[in-house]
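Collaborator request, handled under Task 6.
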Amino acid sequence: MDTTLLLFINHLRNPVLDKFFLFITDKYNLTFIIVPLIIALFLRFRRYAFWIILTIIVAAIVSNTLCSYILKPFFGRARPCMLNIPDLHPLLYINSFSFPSNHAMNIFAFATVLYSFWKGSAYFFYPLAFLVSIGRVYEGVHFPLDVLAGAIFGIVVGLTVSFLFKKIWKEDTSI
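Structure tokens returned to the collaborator:
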């Protein structure tokens, strides 16, 4: 089932989607979204901006560390682009472990932290997180289960870190 869904998504390939997914899944291009967000947070929510940004940074550190140094080595799942799957046409070749997706875990942790402080952010950042995650399958570097697990782990990390920061802060932090 995982390989069947991978091939279905990967076979949607066309030049426009290739450029789109390569752009939004590049971690450096995400700065074009994150930096303006940080500026907007400071302008709109001056009182809360520091705490929101600090929570995002801690969630990113926890998410990235958990995924890269604990979960990926523990599960040791090879990426589809490294398995010579017939009819798979990867856009990228990455030689590291696949499960769970670090991109999915980080972007869902980010979206969840934002949501925990600012409910309206869900309309933009959860769809963005979904597109980044699907993009990794489209590119042939993750199985669908990798990004699903990454999303779940990311949401758990985002909720946990947000909960802990709100307990420390002890103020109403909903915007």
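The cover message to the collaborator said: "Helices lie at 2-10, 15-25, 31-44, 46-75, 102-117, 122-138, 144-169. The CA atoms of residues 76 and 97 lie 6 Å apart. Please let us know whether this matches your experimental observations."
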